[in-house]
Give the backbone structure.
Amino acid sequence: MPSEIVRAIQKVGYDTPSPIQMASIPIGLLKRDVIGVAETGSGKTCAFVVPMLAYIMELPRMTDEVATKGPYALVMAPTRELAKQIFGELRKVAEHHTLTAALLTGGKDVAMERRVMAQTNIIIATPGRLLQHMDESPEFDTGGVKILVLDEADRCLDMGFSNALTAILQNLPKSRQTLLFSATMDKRVIDAGKQTMRQGFQVIDTVGEEVSTADAVAQSAMVVPLDSLNAALVAAVQRARSVPSHKIIVFFTTARQTRWSSELFAAMGMPVHEIHSRKSQTARERVSKQFKNETNTVMFSSDVSARGMDY
């Protein structure tokens, strides 16, 4: 492993690798295709960032401080929030490199993204935005892609990106390395692996090998009639807010439900943070940062925060 990566990892404080990192990084460093399945919060990002950086640093043009004509690596994530989080982790691990990276997500200036893409080594994007550039940006050349990463693959499929993923794969070299990571293992993930990977890919499943967040948290469930749901929600949030230094997330099925419930609480004199797909990207980033940094706070969210977010 390149010494630059080792130094960055030590600075970040990753002293002991997690099970998914220990099992998948050595295989990834051999440039083999991997499906990695592990609990949320188990360090999957580092498990694919390390072999990705090591691969790119071995390429001849990377020994010279010159710009490329297209990306060497593509990383896809299902939501803007998760893509931005991966981008932040990449910057930490790549601190001692001269690599360039770009974040492509909806809600940003397309023209600005076009100006930087051709001179970027690594692109992190949501599937919809990446496909948009493939369709609309003639200068976007993916012929030099050496490694593809698909994070939270099951979530991508749940959110209806299957057709977009198929279209994206048609624009990528078949000889690339592919790393696919997911929190769950099911037939769809295996099928996605067969579609995206070369023969002989390896499946690594570390679920159950470490204590998950859920195992460490007391849980309870309450079933209520639909006409009592709002009253039950208010009561539950009020109970949770009595705990000192509380930090509460309430998940809703849709953006519309999230917004309506946020407006209800505001009208009752209990304003909450609100994050969902109908908010602008600037507003989503602001709310995400506020919730991460504050204590004694409540956030209502649609499924844009439902997977992989580190709050």
Summary: The beta strands are 34-37, 73-76, 101-104, 122-125, 147-150, 177-182, 202-205, 247-251, 273-275, 297-301. The chain has a mean pLDDT of 84. The first strand starts at residue 34 and ends at 37. DSSP finds twelve helices and ten strands in the chain.
